[in-house]
Amino acid sequence: MESEGWPVKVEAILQEALHSIGDFSPIQRYRRVHGGDINDAFYVQSEKQLYFIKMRRTFPHRFFECEQTGLETIRNAGAIRVPLVYGMKETKEYGFLVLEWIEGKETNKTAEQLGHGIALLHQCYGSAFGFAEDNYIGLLRQKNEWYDNWIDYFRECRLLPQLRLAEQKGRMPTQRRNKLEKLLSSLERWLPKDCSPSLLHGDLWGGNWIVGANGVPYLIDPAVFYGHYEFEIAFTELFGGFPSRFYEAYNELMPLSSDYHERKQLYQLFYLLVHLNLFGESYGSAVDRVLRRYVGE
Beta strands 95-100 and 135-137: pairing type? Predict the structure, then answer.
């Protein structure tokens, strides 16, 4: 099997990936895994064990390294499972990430375990909002610095970078920009001033959790940082993929505030801007609808 545009055969890169983590046994079988739209992904079986290997020919600086850091940050929190990271490599021609192969079927406890796990993750508090390094949401670079104030972080490291990127891409017409700038200057009306910095997955939609053995949920593809926990929950509601039992279980350990629904769409605006920048104007009307909700016509 070969992938169009790869400098060498895919199997040779998969073998290199295994050699890089000390598995020198021959590959017995491999197959492409579908579902993601960013990387080429493969199920790989060596004589030693099973692996999930993500590969990409062109990628931003430290792309796979940032994913490894995110997964290890969540793993070290001890709140919810993520696949083991065996290793990664980035060259000028291609990069790869070698992960534990996870496979299983949902049980009637999976949604509850996911809800409790995310709540426990959000109870892992940092000393400030942000993260020690920039990372990625999709292929978009995600700015990170440390802030004592959540509102300032949300403005400076989340909304403003997406506004500027949309301007560069020609997706920020004057009226949209004016409304967004007006919103940026009045975030204090809706966002809490005294919340604690929770460890967040950062890109928690329905495609970024999977099921392992015995129905146990695992998180994948993180864009981690420390932020307001309701920011994460708002995104889970944007595109669906989470059963009602997930929210019930989450609230058992980490109840949402009474005014959560007042700011939910404001938090969702960030992810709509990300999608606007990744996929184009098809998300423009949703962005405009949220802006009307908070700043009017």
Answer: unpaired
Nearest partner of 84 among 61, 38, 55, 50, judged by Cα? 50
Helices 110-122, 229-236: inter-axial angle, 10-degree rounding: 150
- For 101, the token pair is 């192969």
Token pair 């508090």 is found at 125
Backbone region of residue 132 per phi and psi (left: phi > 0; alpha: psi in -120 to 50; beta: other values): alpha
Q: Which two tokens stand for residue 184?
A: 């940026």
pLDDT digits over 20-50, tens only?
A: 999 999 999 999 998 667 889 999 999 999 9
User: Measuring CA to CA, which residue among 267, 228, 211, 226 is closest to residue 73?
Assistant: 226
Which among 86, 115, 80 has a CA at the least distance from the CA of 100?
86
| Mean pLDDT value of segment 197-218 | 97
Tell me how far apart the alpha carbons of residues 49 and 124 are, in angstroms, rounded to a whole number: 33
Q: Which of 40, 203, 221, 259 is catalytic?
A: 203
Which residues lie across from 225 on neighbouring strands? 200
User: In the numeric block, which tokens belong to residue 257?
Assistant: 């505030």
Angle of helix 174-184 versus helix 160-168 axis, rounded to 10:
170
Contacts of 76 (CB under 8 A, 6+ apart): none
Task: Give the span between the Cα atoms of 175 and 180, in whole angstroms.
Answer: 9
pLDDT of 8 reads 63
Q: Residue 253 pLDDT more than 90?
A: yes
In the residue annotation, 203 being an active-site residue is answered as yes
Q: Return d(Cα 167, Cα 187) in angstroms, integer.
A: 21
Q: Which residue has the tokens 């009637």?
A: 108
Q: Which pTM value belongs to this model?
A: 0.95
